[in-house]
Amino acid sequence: MLAAVPETYATAWTCLFRNLEIVPGQLLVIRGGTSSFGQAAIGLAVNAGARVIATTRDPERFGMLTALGAQRAEREEPHLSVRIAEAKRVDAVLDLVGNSTILDSLAMLRRGGRACLAGWLGGLDPIADFNPLLQMASGVYLTFFGSFVFGTPGFPLSDVPLQEIAEQVAAGRLKAEPSRVFGFEEVREAHRVMEANQAKGKMVVVNA
Ligand SMILES: NC(=O)c1ccc[n+]([C@@H]2O[C@H](COP(=O)([O-])OP(=O)(O)OC[C@H]3O[C@@H](n4cnc5c(N)ncnc54)[C@H](OP(=O)(O)O)[C@@H]3O)[C@@H](O)[C@H]2O)c1
Known about the structure:
The chain is of the alpha/beta class. The chain has 8 helices and 8 strands; from the N terminus they run H-E-H-E-H-E-H-E-H-E-H-E-H-E-H-E.
């Protein structure tokens, strides 16, 4: 189970507490909440006292998000900022859907709010004809984080409280149990499940 922790939890922790500077009571929207990364971020943010709204494209998964501690789930869609009741009052957005939604994420923030772009579930196409003057909300912060910087001088892994995270996992305060564990000979099936959008969390392949 420990193997499933660092990539998602170290990345989610850094996005939340370094890039977004989340503090208790803040309203945070996590787009792509049912992903393994999103689930880790929901747990960390809720434990830190944030109020979390998490998104999925599938309303049947709303219960999964609220069971993780999200205050509410919303259906993921490109123009969520137009529909969400808290538009212009959101303190922070962790956007894992990516380039196709990040401008919409900026549009739901309050002045001084922050968005962190850290996932590309919606694809890697660049933001088309990005023109900040015409498309970007005023007075908000856009940040990016990629885990490939862990271990470089500005981003020591010791910055992340991995021991504390592991203790919270052991105590049941954070959920890190893999959704499924496969033997190495089942790696094709693991890919099939992932590509069919049935993973519902982190899957582990064991080479024993
Ligand atoms: N920045 C970093 O350092 C870093 C580190 C790790 C991962 N990542 C990135 O973070 C993202 C999440 O990674 P993961 O491994 O946690 O993913 P994952 O568990 O494989 O994510 C699966 C989820 O993706 C959602 N999804 C699939 N296609 C989508 C689409 N077109 N639009 C919106 N949602 C879609 C599905 O949600 P629903 O069906 O419920 O909507 C599904 O539950 C990936 O883009 C990954 O590359 C970044």
